[in-house]
């Protein structure tokens, strides 16, 4: 059963930049000193640690980092990683209060030849500690291939994200002004479920929209589009929702159905997390225009 919790926000995520030691602890691949052996001879190696320093020079500080789990030992230390940055001016706990949304920049890279440098616009919502990703179609997205890396390109990418910030905030204000009927909220949750799981999965039939719309805290009881989007996004990404019901049994089973009880899992992979985030953003934009 979902409960409404009080808001507790770790100060480090709000107002403190990650130190090099913090980055090295959570994402060692950021500090790779060379590319994974076997990449193309045309590959230009630039350590992500150097890019972090470049972006800090442009006024952005790292506030969260993670790296992909890999099975092959040869990929360890070179795998895909992601760093979220906030503007240095925004890292002030006094000016960033519960309910606020902060623009962020998201950097992804890998040193194994599987990923170009990618920079996206992002948002951080303090009330639920959600890290959102803005869809490519409407806002800044820059990909920098390892064949064409330069400090100027990263500086331009950072500026592109900064220039898009007012537009992103305008979208948030517009979504906050859109009040959804209960029917529309249920439909939003149903379509969001289809973005997370394939239609053949039992969870798509057993997980009711009410579960995704259940507020986790008092600040999420509103029915505007922005709040609805954030509540659904948090449920889908973090998992932990219980669902149960009867599903078809195997062909050789004695009874035609069996009772299934399960709990949704959090989204684990960096690729899947960003894909789902962007898909939900696009869905919300569609609802804002209907």
Written overview of the protein:
It is a single chain. This protein has 290 residues and is of the alpha+beta class. The protein folds into two domains: 11-176, no CATH class; 182-288, no CATH class. The chain is 36% helix and 19% strand. The chain has helices at 11-15, 20-26, 48-57, 151-176, 182-196, 203-206, 209-213, 225-238, 270-288; strands at 60-67, 81-87, 101-109, 117-125, 130-133, 141-144, 242-248, 257-263. The strands form two sheets. Strands 1, 2, 3, 4, 5 and 6 form a six-stranded antiparallel beta sheet that branches. The protein has a two-stranded antiparallel ribbon with strand order 7-8. A hairpin with a 7-residue loop joins strand 3 and strand 4. Helix 5 (182-196) packs antiparallel against helix 9 (270-288) and helix 8 (225-238) packs antiparallel against helix 9 (270-288). The longest helix has 26 residues, at 151-176. The chain is globular.
| Rg calculated over all Cα atoms | 21 Å
* % residues in beta strands: 15-25%
Return residue spans where pLDDT drops below 50 for at least 5 consecutive residues: 1-11, 135-140
Domain tally: 2
The end-to-end span amounts to: 32 Å
What's the total number of strands? 8
Report the helical percentage.
Answer: 25-40%
Overall pLDDT level: 81
Give the overall shape, derived from the CA principal axes. globular
Provide the succession of SSEs.
HHHEEEEEEHHHHHEEH
Could you give a short account of the major beta sheet?
6 strands, antiparallel
The secondary-structure class comes to: alpha+beta
> How many separate helices?
9
């Amino acid at each position: 059963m979902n409960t409404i919790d009080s808001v507790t926000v770790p100060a480090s995520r709000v107002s403190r930049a990650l130190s090099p030691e913090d980055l090295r602890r959570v994402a060692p691949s950021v500090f790779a000193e060379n590319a994974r052996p076997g990449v193309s001879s045309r590959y230009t190696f630039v350590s992500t640690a150097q890019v972090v320093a470049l972006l800090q020079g442009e006024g952005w500080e790292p506030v969260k980092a993670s790296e992909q789990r890999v099975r092959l030992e040869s990929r360890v230390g070179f795998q895909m990683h992601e760093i979220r940055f906030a503007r240095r001016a925004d890292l002030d706990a006094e000016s960033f209060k519960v309910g606020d949304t902060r623009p962020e920049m998201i950097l992804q890279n890998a040193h194994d030849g599987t990923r170009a440098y990618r920079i996206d616009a992002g948002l951080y919502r303090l009330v639920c500690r959600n890290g959102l990703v803005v869809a490519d179609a409407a806002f800044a997205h820059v990909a920098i291939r390892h064949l064409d890396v330069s400090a100027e390109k990263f500086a331009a990418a950072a500026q592109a994200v900064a220039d898009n910030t007012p537009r992103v905030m305008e979208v948030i204000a517009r979504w906050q002004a859109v009040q959804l009927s209960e029917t529309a909220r249920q439909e939003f949750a149903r379509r969001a479920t289809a973005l997370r799981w394939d239609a053949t999965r039992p969870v798509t039939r057993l997980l009711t929209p009410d579960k995704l719309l259940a507020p986790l805290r008092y600040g999420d009881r509103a029915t505007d589009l922005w709040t609805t989007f954030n509540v659904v996004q948090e449920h889908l990404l973090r998992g932990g929702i219980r669902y149960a019901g009867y599903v078809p049994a195997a062909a050789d089973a004695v009874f035609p159905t069996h009772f299934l009880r399960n709990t949704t899992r959090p989204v684990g992979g960096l690729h899947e997390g960003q894909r789902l985030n962007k898909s939900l953003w696009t869905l919300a934009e569609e609802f804002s225009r209907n």
